[in-house]
Design a protein that fits this description.
With 141 residues, the protein is of the alpha+beta class. The chain has 3 helices and 8 strands; from the N terminus they run ββββαββββαα. A hairpin with a 2-residue loop joins β7 and β8.
Length: 141
């Protein structure tokens, strides 16, 4: 995957929480474009947060430039073999021509990772969350 900041125009990240009671369930979408980071937080479909924040050019460049360090790549799909109740992450990276550069998901269950992506997707998610002011309060826990 070519990770040049001039090639990437949009990053879509989704976190799916595990099956827990509604007061504790938090899934969220983070969408990053050149100057804005969007956040939507939900609990089983009930939107708790739907907001956006200005994103400095340097932050967008840092996100794009850091991608190789997370070593996120597509792989052959690995099925969870009946494991249920875990969490999941999805990532989609789009270029300036609206072509998908990378797309896939990981499901974490029973101490294992399943899906179509390998690499440190959790670490990349932490980086994205670090660009959202007071991310924890946005979860409305």
């Amino acid at each position: 995957m070519e990770n040049s900041k001039t090639k990437i125009s949009r990053i879509e990240y989704h976190f799916s929480d595990s099956s827990v009671p509604p007061p504790y369930h938090r899934s969220y979408d983070i969408t990053v474009v050149h100057d804005t980071i969007y956040l939507t937080v939900d609990s089983y479909g009930e939107i708790l947060t739907d907001t956006s924040f200005a994103l400095a050019k340097e932050d967008f460049e840092e996100i794009c430039d850091s991608l190789p360090s997370f070593n996120i790549k597509t792989c052959d799909k690995k099925d969870p073999d009946g494991c249920v109740g875990g969490t999941g992450e999805q990532l989609k990276i789009i270029d300036a021509e609206n072509n998908t550069i990378l797309s896939g998901s990981v499901y974490y269950c029973g101490g294992e990772s399943y899906g179509t992506l390998t690499g440190d997707l959790k670490g990349f998610g932490y980086l994205l969350k670090s660009k959202i002011p007071d991310f924890k309060s946005q979860l409305k826990e």
